[in-house]
C-alpha cells in the first residue's frame, strides 16, 4: 500500500508536466496559425468578437434595466470607466485637465449624457434587433452633421444613399397618426446625438490630447450621474451587481477588440463587420427574450446597412483619390 502511494506521488509531477507540455504545444500551434492569417482576417476576428461582446453587454443592460433606473445603471458604468482611467488621470494630473476649450468639453459631455440616457432607455424597451438596426443610422446623421458643422462636401450619390437609409429608419419605426413608438423615437434621437458626439470629438481632437478628452468625459459624466442616482437609488441585488460588473468588463473588452480590429484590418474591410451585430442581436433576442424581428425590421435594416456601406465606400474612394 505504501509503495503504491510512493509510485503515485512520483507519477503525479510527470503527469502534470506532460499535460503542461501538450498545452504549450497547442498554444504555439494556435499562435502560428494566428500569425499566418492576413491583417484583415485577424482584424475580422477581433471585430466579430467585439461585436458579440457588445451585444451580450446590451443584453445585460436590458436585464438590469427591468428594475433598476437607467440613471443608476449609467452611474455604475461611468464609475467603472473612471476607476479604469484613474491611474492614468493621477499620473498625468494636472496636465490631463489642462485645456483652453472647457466649454467644448462640457458641451460634448452634455450631449453624451442625453445620448446614453435615451439610448439605454430604448435598448431596455425595444426588441434588441430593432434597437440595433436604428443605432446604425448614426452614420447617416454623421453625414448630415459633417455638412452642417464641418462644411464637408457631399456629392449627389451620397445624398441619395443617405435618404435611402433614413427611409429604412421610417420603415422600422412605421410612424402613423394614431400610434408612434416613443422608444423608437428615443433610439433615433440617441443615434443623432451619437453622431453629433463623434463630430465634436473630431473637432476637439484637433487641439486636445486623447487623455484630456477622456479625463474630462469620465470625470464630468461620473459627477453628473451621481447626483440624480442619489435621488433615484434602488438597492441592486447580488445578481444585478454581478450583471453591472459584467457590463463594465464587457465594455472594456469591446473597446480593446475594436482598437485591435481597426489596427489590424483596413478600414474598408473593418467597417462592414460592424453590421454583423444585427445577426447577434436577432439571435440573442430570440433565445433570451423570445423576440422575433418583423419583416419591417429586416427590410429597414437592409436599407440602412446598404446606404451606410455605400457611404463608407464613397468616403474611401474620396480619400484614395487625394
Features:
13 helices
Structural class: mainly alpha
Largest sheet: none
Cα-atom Rg, whole angstroms? 24 Å
Amino- and carboxy-terminal Cα gap: 82 Å
- N-to-C SSE string, H for helix and E for strand: HHHHHHHHHHHHH
Count of all domains? 1
Mean pLDDT: 81
> Helix fraction?
over 70%
Strand content: under 5%
Query: What form results from the Cα inertia axes?
Result: globular
**Number of alpha- plus pi-helical segments:** 13
Number of strands: 0
Regions with little confidence, pLDDT below 50 for 5+ residues:
none
How would you describe what is shown here?
There is one protein chain. With 322 residues, the chain is mainly α. The protein has one domain (46-321). It contains 13 helices and no strands. The chain has helices at 2-36, 39-64, 70-92, 102-125, 128-135, 138-148, 156-173, 182-205, 210-232, 238-264, 267-270, 277-289, 295-321. Helix 3 runs antiparallel to helix 9 (210-232), helix 6 (138-148) crosses helix 7 and helix 7 (156-173) runs antiparallel to helix 13. The radius of gyration is 24 Å and the shape is globular. The termini are far apart. The model has no long low-confidence stretch (mean pLDDT 81).
Amino acid at each position: 500500500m505504501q509503495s503504491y502511494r510512493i509510485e503515485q506521488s512520483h507519477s503525479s509531477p510527470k503527469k502534470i508536466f506532460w499535460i503542461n507540455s501538450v498545452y504549450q504545444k497547442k498554444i504555439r500551434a494556435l499562435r502560428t496559425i494566428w500569425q499566418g492569417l492576413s491583417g484583415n482576417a485577424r482584424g475580422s476576428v477581433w471585430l466579430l468578437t467585439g461585436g458579440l461582446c457588445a451585444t451580450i453587454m446590451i443584453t445585460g443592460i436590458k436585464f438590469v434595466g427591468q428594475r433598476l433606473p437607467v440613471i443608476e445603471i449609467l452611474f455604475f458604468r461611468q464609475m467603472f470607466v473612471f476607476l479604469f482611467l484613474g491611474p492614468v488621470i493621477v499620473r498625468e494630473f494636472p496636465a490631463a485637465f489642462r485645456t483652453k476649450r472647457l466649454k467644448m468639453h462640457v458641451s460634448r459631455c452634455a450631449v453624451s449624457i442625453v445620448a446614453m440616457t435615451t439610448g439605454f432607455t430604448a435598448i431596455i424597451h425595444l426588441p434588441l434587433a430593432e434597437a440595433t438596426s436604428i443605432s446604425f443610422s448614426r452614420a447617416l446623421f454623421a453625414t448630415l452633421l459633417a455638412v452642417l458643422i464641418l462644411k464637408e462636401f457631399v456629392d449627389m450619390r451620397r445624398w441619395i444613399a443617405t435618404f435611402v437609409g433614413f427611409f429604412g429608419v421610417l420603415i422600422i419605426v412605421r410612424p402613423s397618426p394614431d400610434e408612434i413608438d416613443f422608444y423608437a423615437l428615443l433610439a433615433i434621437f440617441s443615434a443623432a446625438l451619437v453622431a453629433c458626439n463623434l463630430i465634436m470629438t473630431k473637432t476637439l481632437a484637433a487641439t486636445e490630447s486623447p487623455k484630456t478628452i477622456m479625463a474630462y468625459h469620465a470625470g464630468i459624466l461620473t459627477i453628473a450621474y451621481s447626483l440624480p442616482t442619489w435621488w433615484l437609488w434602488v438597492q441592486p441585488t447580488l445578481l444585478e451587481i454581478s450583471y453591472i460588473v459584467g457590463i463594465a468588463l464587457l465594455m472594456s473588452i469591446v473597446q480593446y477588440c475594436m482598437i485591435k480590429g481597426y489596427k489590424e484590418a483596413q478600414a474598408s474591410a473593418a467597417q462592414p463587420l460592424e453590421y454583423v451585430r444585427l445577426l447577434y442581436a436577432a439571435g440573442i433576442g430570440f433565445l433570451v427574450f423570445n423576440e422575433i424581428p418583423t419583416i419591417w425590421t429586416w427590410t429597414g435594416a437592409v436599407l440602412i446597412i446598404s446606404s451606410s456601406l455605400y457611404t463608407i465606400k464613397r468616403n474611401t474612394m474620396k480619400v484614395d483619390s487625394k
